[in-house]
Write a structure and sequence with these properties.
Layout lengths: L5 E9 L10 E7 L6 E9 H11 L4 H13 L2 E9 L1 H6 L3
Helix pairs in contact: 1-2
Length: 95
C-alpha cells in the first residue's frame, strides 16, 4: 500500500504581539491548500528556532524558511503553502 502524505498550508501566528519575535511562542495550524480553512491545530513552538525545526520537518525550502523569518520579525502572522505533513513533523510536535 502506498503512503499518502498531506500537503497543505501552514499558518504561523505569534501568540503575544509585544513579545520579541526571536523568543516568542508561535501557534501552528495546518489547512487546505486551496482555501483558508484550518483543518488541524499542530500546537505551539517556542522561538524562531522552533519554527525552523517545524518547517524543515515539513520539507519547506530554505528560501521559504528565510522568508518566514523576515515576515515574522515584523508581522504577527505568516502562512506557507505546500507544506508536507510528514511523519517527522508529526513526531516533532508530539502528535
Amino acid at each position: 500500500m502506498a503512503r499518502r502524505s498531506s500537503v497543505g498550508r501552514l499558518y504561523i501566528v505569534r501568540l503575544r504581539p509585544a513579545t520579541d519575535p526571536v523568543n516568542a511562542r508561535y501557534l501552528l495550524t495546518f489547512g487546505s491548500r486551496s482555501t483558508d480553512e484550518i483543518a488541524l491545530n499542530l500546537g505551539s513552538v517556542r522561538g524562531l528556532d522552533g519554527v525552523t525545526d517545524v518547517l524543515r520537518a515539513g520539507r519547506v525550502p530554505v528560501d521559504e524558511i528565510e522568508k518566514a523569518w523576515r515576515v515574522l520579525a515584523v508581522e504577527l502572522r505568516h502562512q506557507i503553502p505546500n507544506v508536507t505533513l510528514t511523519h517527522a513533523l508529526i513526531r516533532l510536535l508530539n502528535l
